[in-house]
Amino acid sequence: MTKSLTAIFAIALLNITISFPALAKSAAEERAESNQMVQQSLADFKKENAELAGKISGSVGYAVFSNAGINLFVISAGGGHGVAIDNVSGKRTYMKMGEAGVGFGAGVKDFRALMVFKTRESYDKFVESGWLFGAQADASAKAGDKGGSAESEGAIGDVEIYQMTEAGLSLEATIKGTKFWKDKDLNQG
Known about the structure:
Elements: H1 2-19, H2 27-48, H3 52-57, E1 61-86, E2 92-117, H4 120-128, E3 131-143, E4 146-149, E5 153-156, E6 159-182
Antiparallel strand pairs: 1-2, 2-6, 3-4, 3-6, 5-6
């Protein structure tokens, strides 16, 4: 199963990488877009859960990601971008993410993820190595302001994770591997 998941992950990343060259933007434009996504996502998360403001400001750091995913019967794949913010130094690390998995389901969804890091070790490990694996069961249906979603939250060690569906329709139960890594182009200069 590990070899199958690795192959699916590689295909998904290749597909994501070659799908968007025509939409190329400058690094400054991409950073500005990512920073705007972070600002809007944080406002949305805090609107839904007022306690998050204190958790974020009291943490070592946090990361916000925008992700679009698709699940077709037994294969799921997705990709996105985000920013990890060190609350001590103020440094922003621009990152990418990709995910692939196997399981049953169908649908497409766009969601935001917020990770709040309680310790320096957990934040540094995430920024430097970035792997996160997990099983997921999800049901969501949302289009604009209509619909609903099963938002998830949880903790993995010293990291609290929150997810908010932006749009989409999805019903899935999958085992996914998610990889987060530094965006070399956006972190230069």
